[in-house]
Amino acid sequence: MDNTFWLMLLTDLLALGVGIYVGRKLLYKAFGKREREAEEKAATILKNAEIQAESIKKDRILEAKEKYLHLKSEFEKDSNQKKNILLQNENKLKQREQQLNQMLEQNKRRETELEQQRNTLNQQIEAANKRKEEADKRREEAERMRTQQVEQLEKIANLTAEQAREQLIDALKAEAESRASSYVKNIVEEAKLTATKEAKKVVIETIQRTATEHAIENCVSVFNIESDDIKGKVIGREGRNIRALEAATGVEIIVDDTPEAIIISGFDPVRREIARLSLHRLVQDGRIHPARIEEVVAKTRKNIEDEIVEIGERTVIDLGIHGLHPELIKMVGRMRFRSSYGQNLLQHSREVAKLCATMAAELGLNAKLAKRAGLLHDIGKVWHEEAELPHAILGMEMAKKYKEHPEVCNAIGAHHDEIEMTTMISPIVQVCDAISGSRPGARREMMESYIKRLKELEELAMNFNGVTKCYAIQAGRELRVMVDADHVTDDRANALSFEISQKIEKEMQYPGQIKVTVIREMRSVAYAK
């Protein structure tokens, strides 16, 4: 049993050793295969890396070459451009040098020619002097011969030459006067008949063909409101709103018992229109207070300026006038808010333009120029600056400034006989101006003198230092003067009202009395940011 056990143990040990040996061989074989595979894979990776590196190297070399070629081409291009510029400059310099040489040669030739001409002139002068001497000698000889002949004739006729000349002149004068007087009498009679007939015909046809309405402006505008409750808002607490509105617009706002109406009084139509539009906007908006009033009045004043330009453009388009300067168009629009002896200036100018065009066409003259002159004949009345020149001369100067036709300028300046009429259009404009102004109901003399007095009243107060605004209201019975608070003290304001009143008494004539109110308002404004 013991031998069998050891034999079995030995057998198991041999089997175990053989298994270990075989397993070891198999393990070495497997490890060797994996190692070979890893080496092959590593070799493949290295080979691929070398290939990629070579490819990247070639790409980088190609990019570097391309960049080099690009920079080289740009450098060559820039160099060529600079070379071309240099060549052009050289060519220009050569051309300029050639031109200068040619000019020098021309100057030399001209100097030579001038020298030759000078020599020729000297020769001609010498020849002329010789001829003059010969002519003087001949004249003296002829005068001597004529004197001898006159003396012989005087001996024969027993009359001196002067007496014979006077008798001949008297005889011819008497005959000429007799014939001329008969001719003149016949021509004058015929001209009177023909001219009177033709002139009446032209004037009547012109008036019949021109139908323009007569617009007589007054000094009051009516602002209609929906209910009387709005009057309280317009007046404001303790009257602050209505005072602010009057101070901003320069008109008098009359809120009385008139139902559903507020009266705007002022002699300047522009101020009345600004006040009316401002009231309309304030009532529509509903916010009525001093700050809002000043803002709305400022915007309305700007809108009125735009409206003036629009009115001027519309007028020249309606009349078919082209090429008018923008400043003249603006002045034409400003005529809408001006009057001449109570007659609206724009309607008057439109009427004169149509009358002038019709008359010029009837007389065979330039109707377009006549219409242009008729529209612009009173342009001097709307010049925004005060001038001492008559409005006709001022209008003529403005027309010249804006390159109007000389015939138009002469017609403007001569329509009140300030200058001499040099064209046929000038008397036509003068006649048409008289026709338009002399129609029944067209003008009112009292209105013009009244407006002139109010303007003089405002200008008188504006001449004092520190006065910024001045408004004549209540038909000229009150003068409101706004002063600059930074330059005029309260004491100076009191003295200023007295000085203005004294100057009005000395220099102006007026009915009743005038109340002078000097307003000094101090404002302190700061902004929180």
Automatic annotation (TrEMBL):
Residues 109-140 are annotated as: Disordered. Pfam families: HD (PF01966), KH_1 (PF00013), RNase_Y_N (PF12072). The keyword Nuclease applies. Residues 345-438 form the HD domain. Its EC number is 3.1.-.-. Gene3D superfamilies: Hypothetical protein af1432. This is Ribonuclease Y. Residues 128-140 have a biased composition (Basic and acidic residues). Keywords: Cell membrane, Endonuclease, Hydrolase, Membrane, Nuclease, RNA-binding, Transmembrane, Transmembrane helix.
